[in-house]
Amino acid sequence: MKQANTTIAAAVLSLAALLPVSAMAQAATDAAKSSPAAASMTDGEVRKIDKDTSKITIKHGEIKHLEMPGMTMVFNAKDKTLLDKVQVGDKVRFMVVSEGGKMVVTAIDLAK
Question: Each residue of 42-100: pLDDT tens digit?
Fold first, then answer.
C-alpha cells in the first residue's frame, strides 16, 4: 500500500512540474502570432482609404501569422503617412499586427 501511495505521489509531482512548461510554450506561441518579428507581408488590393480616420479597407489573402483567412476588412493605419503611398485599386503588400484587439497596418507598399 505504501508503495502505491509513493508511486501516485511521484506521478502527481511529475505532472505538476510539467504545467509551467506547457504554459510557457503556449505563451510563446501566442506572442509569436502577434509579434511583428513573426509577421510577414500579405497581398491585397486597396478598396477604400479614409485619411481623416487613418483607416484603409483592403481585400486581402490569408494573413498566416494571425491565422486569418482572406477577406475584405478595415484596418487602422499605424501612421497616416502610410496612406499617402497608395490609392484605391492598387495591388499592395502590407504588414498587419494585432494591437489591443485592433488590426493595425504597420507597413504598406505597392506590389511588384
Answer: 999 999 999 999 999 999 999 999 999 999 999 999 999 999 999 999 999 999 999 99
Domain span including residue 7: 2-34
Give dist(CA 57, CA 78) in Å, integer: 14
Verdict on whether the full-model pTM lies above 0.85: no
According to DSSP, residue 81 is labeled: G
How many CA atoms, within 13 angstroms, populate the side-chain half-sphere of residue 107?
Answer: 11
Tell me the pairing of strands 102-110 and 55-60. Answer: unpaired
Q: How many domains does one find in the chain? A: 2
Domain identity same for 18 and 63: no
The DSSP line for 18-66 is HHHHHHHHHHHHHHHHH-GGG---EEEEEEEEETTTTEEEEEE--BGGG
